[in-house]
Amino acid sequence: MTIFSRLKEDLATARAHDPAARGGLEVFLVYSGLHAIWTYRLTHRMWRRRWRFLARLVSQLARFLTGIEIHPGATIGRRFFIDHGMGVVIGETTVIGDDVMLYHGVTLGGKAPRNTPPGTKRHPTLEDGVTVGAGAKVLGNITIGAWSAVGANAVVTKDAPPHSLVVGVPATVRPLSNAAADAARGVHDWHWQI
């Protein structure tokens, strides 16, 4: 995929997820979530080439400018969107699938003892189509299954199977109704049925 087709896909993703988006130029110029993702892609390439210090330096500059911290070592799929973005933190060993959406204040953080060897997986995996609500904390080497939704302000420390609704402190897992599962896949006029 060329850089221009990737940019076009990112702009289309933002417009699909945000009804307030008025046009491609506006999204391109003012959406901090997109700026953070674009900077992440650059720093991730640096990270893979072992330009670790430069990658971290550029990612911290992006954090200063956008309010979103994405570690260059994280692995992020296509059509990833961060809505509003301020306060989002994505840790080094996080793995994010395709079509994932995060709201502001989300932490995808580590949970491991202090003396954990470098390279140990200590951050979550979000499979394809996961949506994480504002302020949610997803912590540790856990997996949130495909097309699941994590509720706002949930604190998640255990795996969730595909098509789950994960809510509460500590979070509990419930199956998504058919309508909610469809909504997680992009069908919009739905209501939660638990």
Automatic annotation (TrEMBL):
Belongs to the transferase hexapeptide repeat family. Pathway: Amino-acid biosynthesis; L-cysteine biosynthesis; L-cysteine from L-serine: step 1/2. PANTHER family: SERINE ACETYLTRANSFERASE. It comes from the Bacteria. GO terms for molecular function: serine O-acetyltransferase activity. This is Serine acetyltransferase. InterPro entries: Hexapep, LbH_SAT, Ser_AcTrfase_N_sf, Ser_O-AcTrfase, Serine_acetyltransferase, Trimer_LpxA-like_sf. Keywords: Acyltransferase, Amino-acid biosynthesis, Cysteine biosynthesis, Membrane, Transferase, Transmembrane, Transmembrane helix. SUPFAM superfamilies: Trimeric LpxA-like enzymes. The chain crosses the membrane at residues 20-40. Its EC number is 2.3.1.30. It comes from Agromyces soli.
